[in-house]
Amino acid sequence: MKKDNFLFYIFLVLLIYIQSFSQQFSQDIIIEESYLGYVNAPVIGIDHNNNIAVLWQNVIDTLDVFKYVESLNGGTTFDSIRIVDQFRQYFEEIYGGTSFIKYDAFNNPLVSYFIRTYPASDYHFIKKSSDGGLSFPSDCTRVITTQPYTDFLFLDDTTGIMAFAHSSNIHVYKTLDGGDSFFYLSKVDTNTRPNHNVSLVETGNHNLICFWSKSSMYYHDTYYSISSDLGMSFAPMIKLDSTHHHSYGVDAVAYKNYVFVVYCGLRDSLGIKVILNKSTDYGQTYVGEKILYDYGNTSLGYSVAPSIEFHPAVGLCVVWGHDDILFTRSKDFGVTFDSTVIVATGTMGLNRYRSHQSMAISDSGDISVVSLRNDPNHYQYIVMNKARLPLLTKFEISDIYKNETYILNQNYPNPFNNQTTISFYLPKSENVEIEIYDINGRLVNTLLTRKLNWGLHSIIWNGLNADGQEVSSGIYLYHIKTKDYSQTRKLVLLK
Question: Long-range CB contacts (< 8 A, 24+ apart) of 310-315?
Fold first, then answer.
């Protein structure tokens, strides 16, 4: 028995050591070395086959060159560099940069980059490759704004939404052809100029949420706005953080009913912190701020640009910092986090710079982080650091998917004509009733009355009453009831 206990102890120690070792990041993998001109921080993308791509800007004399490269083996080697675009610098150009790499259903990359000119005009360029990134067309979509911040997400194989920070609002554009062309759709009213990044997510109930930071007289604050009609309109903005009066550098990710938001925060003179905020009800409410890292009294002088990604088999991953780049992971949807790990260090005269779109997660658990490294001899390097994280076990996945709260989602679509879907989440197995009432409180139909297992469920209402007859157009109520929970929401039937 003692021998068995001893062997088990040795096995446990080895397992902990292996998992700890597997979270250490590699030395710099150099993608490009440059001595001419200057280079801006790169962005990274990962396609549906787990192939990695990197996009960056290199300015040589008066020539802007935007470069793209792919790796088909997780960053071990990279293909030859491809030129996405190059042109003579714009008149009175201040700087430029890259925004993102996104992939359509056929693994064709959509890339975005920008040029900022004096006094405050930003030229955004969006290009789509039709051959998997082997080449890029000469023509592109161009949008002029007053801020360099933008984000994009695909809603399906061909439809996508793009948000641009502009003046005192955020302009929303839409594509119906996979990114080959865009048209203006709507705007998010922000009252004052949005800055320090824009982040756009789609929740599990098909709401869109736009996050941004904006300047007030003395502080930066982080806000969000929700669209329940896929970007046609956005609700009035809501302040995300009421504790930290100086919050900025927001990035967000959504998965099913969860929305995770990470940003920098400063409360009075207590130092910069990296903060996570979380919603479990599709972004309607947030549970409060969780400090991931506290810089204390360290004087930074810049945003640490936190970036967040989620993968169902890996968990929630956050990377932040310039110079010293740091990383942490949560395996339980943001309840707890692993110890902070150093991705790369900026000591010994090395200065590192990241963008918000600097991290990618593969299905096998590979974490890739890209950055720009400047050395004292004026060489500039586009580099990547990698780590292999252990995948979540089936027991860990089963446990974290058991949400502790009940959720009744807004029906979709709403308003509806023929039928609409009502989805809800149960934290435990129990008897459930779903009923439809008219606006006067009269029972119209009972859709469900039986025992269900824990998890996410959905049911369809086709606009019929209990007798199978069509009901008239109007506002109706749908009501869920269990032993410990009841909730009512409105829906609209239009014929």
Answer: 310/253, 310/255, 310/258, 310/260, 310/361, 311/361, 311/363, 312/255, 312/397, 313/363, 313/365, 313/391, 313/392, 313/397, 314/361, 314/365, 314/367, 314/389, 314/391, 314/392, 315/389, 315/392
Domain ranges, residue 302: 25-393
Residues 337 and 200 in one domain: yes
Whether residues 408 and 355 fall in one domain:
no
Region of poorest pLDDT, from 124-128, 292-296, 465-469: 292-296
Residue 5 belongs to some domain of the structure:
no
∠ CA(329), CA(330), CA(335), 5° rounding? Answer: 145
Q: How many domains does the chain have?
A: 2
- Residue 299 pLDDT grade (very low, low, confident, very high; cuts 50, 70, 90): low
Per-residue confidence (pLDDT) for residue 128, from 0 to 100: 97
Describe the strand order of the beta sheet including 272-279 as a list of residue ranges.
Answer: 246-255, 258-266, 272-279, 289-294
**Locate tokens 């000591």: which residue?**
347
Residue 432, domain CATH: 2.60.40.4070
Among 352, 369, 393, the domain boundary falls at 393
